[in-house]
Amino acid sequence: MAEFAHPERHHVAVLVRHGMLVMELGIVHRLFGQARSASGEPLYEVVTCTLEPGPVRTDSDFTIPIDRGPEVLAEADTVIIPASLTEYEPMARVLTPPLDAALRRIPEDARIASICTGAFVLAAAGLLDGRRATTHWRSADELQARFPEVDVDPCVLYTDDGNVLTSAGVASGIDLVLHMIRRDHGAAVANEVARGTVVSPHREGGQAQFVRRPVPEPRTSSTKAARAWALENLHRPLTLRELAAREAMSTRTFTRRFRDEVGISALQWLTQQRIERARQLLEETDLPVDRIATEAGFGTAASLRQHFQAALGVSPSAYRSTFRGELVAQA
To answer: What is the mean pLDDT of the chain?
Structure first.
């Protein structure tokens, strides 16, 4: 009997355990569940499973009945492992026998991702050996100490190493799922999902986790207006002085406040936004690369290629060719 009802969709299996965080399970279902094709057809089917079917305790005051077992994993295209607070990843460097047996069911070509401390499961399975990975910043030192073969980066929102991905604490699961949707189906689909969920459509994986930073007082001036203005003027050669002037701040104050609010510098943020704009134009239009470089604010095709290669590891032309080819294949 097939575990997934729709063979034409991308199959996502969520493996939950006792002590699961309800929000993390909800993130996966809500975001993947909203992704639609141009004709309005769902693009993903999400099925929740557990090691032994039955009531699964959550981090709240209720349980959730899960009637699917680990056999679901054998039919998955993507497997996501959220965190568990009570069955927290074993202190030993090996998996429990039931968890080990479950993970062995996952197809070799499947994509596997973790949210928060779910990274400990991937590490214990050897899937993160020699790879860059992240987890919640409170658990990063423990992950590194327990699994020295893993290159733990405690400062990013998520990592993407081909078919193995990790994300930081809870809400960064949103960024991870949007990233996977964007990688599968492009910026337009991911942005529509973000809009429906009322979240930011794109935060780069390299953006810093917000750790040990106090929430700004409500009366404190912010850089929100400058960021909104910058997004409307990406085609222009923007400077820090111009951005600071939009908020009536000195360049020094603006620079400090921008980093406090966003987690990266204003110039890094601008580059990220310009790359995202270029990606959108490459995916959705037939504009020549020179024109896209101008529209995204890189000025020249050479500058666009340099930044694109540094950020994504491919040229703009290769990115367009690959993505448009996938669109044709899916049509």
So the answer is: 86
